[in-house]
Amino acid sequence: MTPLRLRPDNFTPPTRTPWGGRRIVEAIKAGLPDLGDDGEHDVVGEAWEFSIDPAFPSRVADGRLLAEALPEAATTPMLVKLLDTADELSVQVHPPDDYAALPPGHSGKPEAWYVLAREPGAGLWLGLRDGVTREALSSALAAHADLRPMLTFVPVSPGDCFVIAPGTVHAVGAGVTLVEPQLVRPGQTGTTYRFWDWNRRYDAAGHRSPSGQPRPLHVADSLAVTAFDDQRGAAYVASLRRRPEPIVAAAGATRDRLCTLGVMSVERLRGDGTLVIPALAALAALVVVRGRLTIRAGDASTAARCGETLALPSEIGAFSVTLEDAEAIMTWCRG
């Protein structure tokens, strides 16, 4: 079997991501077909690059759902997104899979963040500061207070990687572009609970407006699933940070493991050269975030450029990846 090229325009609407920016369409996916006119996508906060989520499933070029074109995808827990922020995301937390109040058809959503780009001084909000109790946080939320003094801000650089476990209070700050692999129960939708949305209001089109409406919050559920007994401050941030682990290096190219997320391996292929990947015996997603590459398996070859995503069937066997000043994020799940 050969890799399947996924449509590059699986964007969520701006009413869902009013904090979105322009880097996904103007930089990462610039010039790709099937994106429509440049002005068509005023704000793009998310591109669901590899997804079987019922809300925003991936499709192949002929319009079929990924799970129809490649049946083994129907049982994968992998979800891989691109995120780009012009404004802060809401302060949020994800529940564990066994949270009793999860609605039917919903699951937890452990995730990882790999930073691609950032504006000067931009960063992430990760965890609570020392001394912040459940009672103090609850009181601040009830008073619609500014939560920033209770949160830990972490400036970031391209290449930084963090694992966000269930129960971690977090938000992506303004001016950050990242890859976000997630684990979601197959066929279900991952759940996010919003603590606080910076006291913002939006009109019906998703634009900031003093006369608009706030987005819904989920304070009771947020407090219920937050891991208040975790470490705090810098020590907690250090526990979330992951350093690349070399897997193999060839002339000019490297394959590194960025992190593991449950059964998922999140890897980076980078450089200018050819890597040989032994058979994974698992479905994989390959998101190209810089340059161009060519996959060769047997007598077949498939090229992809920045902004494109390929689904690699488990039956593809061993393959090579020739990188042309490229970087790609590959995710796959151990059996």
Tags for this model:
335 residues; Jelly Rolls; 8-stranded antiparallel β-sheet; 5-stranded antiparallel β-sheet; 10% helix
Overview of the structural elements:
- With 335 residues, the protein is mainly beta.
- It folds into two domains: 4-240, Jelly Rolls (Sandwich), CATH 2.60.120.10; 245-333, Jelly Rolls (Sandwich).
- Helices cover 10% and strands 38% of the residues.
- It is built from five helices and 20 strands.
- The strands form five sheets. Strands 1, 14, 15, 16, 17, 18, 19 and 20 form an eight-stranded antiparallel sheet that branches. A five-stranded antiparallel sheet has the order 2-3-11-6-9, with no helix packed on it.
- The model has no long low-confidence stretch (mean pLDDT 95).
Please specify the SSE layout and strand pairing.
Blueprint: E1 4-5, H1 23-28, E2 46-50, H2 66-69, E3 78-84, E4 91-93, E5 106-107, E6 111-118, E7 123-128, H3 134-142, E8 151-155, E9 161-164, E10 170-172, E11 176-183, E12 189-190, E13 193-196, H4 219-225, H5 233-240, E14 245-250, E15 253-261, E16 264-277, E17 284-297, E18 300-305, E19 309-312, E20 319-333
Parallel strand pairs: 5-12
Antiparallel strand pairs: 1-19, 2-3, 3-11, 4-13, 6-9, 6-11, 7-8, 7-10, 14-15, 15-16, 16-20, 17-18, 17-19, 17-20
Write a short abstract of this structure.
This protein has 335 residues and is mainly beta. The chain contains 5 helices and 20 strands. The protein folds into 2 domains: 4-240, Sandwich (Jelly Rolls), CATH 2.60.120; 245-333, Jelly Rolls (Sandwich), CATH 2.60.120.10.
